Amino acid sequence: MATARTLSDGTGAAAERLHGLDAVRGYALLLGVVYHATMSFLPGPQIWPVKDSDPSTALSVLFFVSHIFRMTTFFLIAGFFGHLMVEKRGVAGFIKDRAKRIALPLVAFWPISIAGIVAAAIYGAYVATGHVPTHGPQAAPNPPPLAFPLTHLWFLYVLLWLYAGALISRWFVLRLDRKGVLPALGDRLVRGIVRKRAGLVLLALPVAGAFYGLADWLPWFGVPTPDSSLIPNTVAMAQFGVAFGFGWLLHRQGDLLQVLARRWPLNLTVALIATAGCLAALGLAPAIHPPAPGLARTGLAAGYALAIWSWTFAVIGLALRFLSDHSPARRYIADSSYWIYLIHLPLIMALQAAVSRLGWPWEAKFAAILGVGFALMFASYQLFVRRSVIGAILNGRRAPKVAHTPATAIKPEPAR
């Protein structure tokens, strides 16, 4: 995954390292762990392999809010650092790096992930019923074209699509627009969106239209996750493609980040209002029926789309405002987050199953799932990944070993 680099301020001088964006990228991945940990506690019908005996409305709201912005934020930052890397390493270096750090982990971790998820689901069924299931889950009645279980690793697959699209678009622009008209138009558009308070509305329009046009759209679950087919769904590609492209172009004008840092209170206020409006219309438990066409559906599509972008701008602005200083702890979390996200799902599912029938309150169960899960995942990163070849693949480098000089080796200078 791309890490923060120094950024030119447009005059050729190197600006401060963007620790804030690095932190957001890492925390967005870790928020995905929390998001999946809430799913066994959702009220209503079972939509997850594990169903806890003590559902929680509070965790239902956490699920809803975290799902609004975490992946859009991730893809925007991925586009930002993707453009930085192309400018720094060239196209060949970019392709080589992305093949090693995105394509290779997808291919290597998918079999491990799918085996772990199946094992955890079997364990969950055994805990719930007292019997090992003798047959797998029922197949979907209308599977999508090229159906394939990408699991939670779908984001790597979509990233490869977006990287390819960005490089192809870049090639055409360089070949056909030698005067730079299109890049200048893109810069003007991005600058207008960021500087004008109503710019969020323009960004929200594509996904709002996609939401409204999707007949089976479920507003509670926002952007349909493209995890079940090798052909990503239209809504996901529209939203994540816009986010990635916006981040790609945003890197060309790094000074605009300061506008996001200044406006985080306004963007957070809009995000909270839009989210509250969606929850007021949908209720606090998952709604599994699509809204009928009409004014209510239009309002939900517009409100959810506005919430996506206002949350995204708010969390990035907050990080740039308050997390832009160097922090060894935040750097460690950012480095470990990729590994943790790759391995977390089977472990979280197994822990959910282990506590699902205990007579504990949901607060204690949820704390146990996250506490044990994060402890094991951080420990595995420290012991097996951080200074290994796996760490070099995932983070682009091995963490240096700390040199310890024995006290006996320090000899005092002779008296003069």
Tell me what the structure shows.
This protein is mostly helical. It has one domain (19-136, 143-398). Helices cover 66% and strands 0% of the residues. It contains 12 helices and no strands. It has helices at 19-38, 57-129, 154-176, 181-195, 199-213, 234-250, 257-262, 264-282, 295-322, 328-355, 362-385, 389-395. The longest helix is centred in the N-terminal third of the chain and has 73 residues, at 57-129. It is globular and about 70 Å long.
Secondary structure blueprint with pairings:
Blueprint: H1 19-38, H2 57-129, H3 154-176, H4 181-195, H5 199-213, H6 234-250, H7 257-262, H8 264-282, H9 295-322, H10 328-355, H11 362-385, H12 389-395
Helix pairs in contact: 1-2, 1-9, 1-10, 2-3, 2-6, 2-9, 2-10, 4-5, 5-6, 5-9, 8-9, 10-11
